[in-house]
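Entry 12.
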Amino acid sequence: VWKNKVVMLVGAGIGVTPFASILRSLQMQVQAQQLDKSSKRQGRASHPPPGTENDVTTWQACQKVYFYWLCRGQDEFYWFYDLLSEALKGPARDRIEVNLFQTAMVELSQVKMLGDGFKQFMGRP
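Predicted 3D structure (tokens):
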């Protein structure tokens, strides 16, 4: 995942669990890079040992992550609602797009809009 500039994550039901850690890691990496840049501006730059390749200043997180989650019912989206909402509001918010597909039949009047930047769709992609 981390070797790519653009990543598409597609999961169904509880099968999205591994993607939760990817989204969280992206948030943490972008936040660490922002803190490092801030420290350098304030003259408190850290100097990593020569030859360190995994330094936060040289490693670049994905530029864009497209996350697609397919679930039968809308209630399943609440499993990771807080994590997804945090991702859309966090330091990597410009890098993450969340697309939610509800595949079961539902009356449109019964659909609850989740807000927070989620893109919701009814039916299969």
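Annotation: The mean pLDDT is 82. DSSP finds two helices and four strands in the chain.
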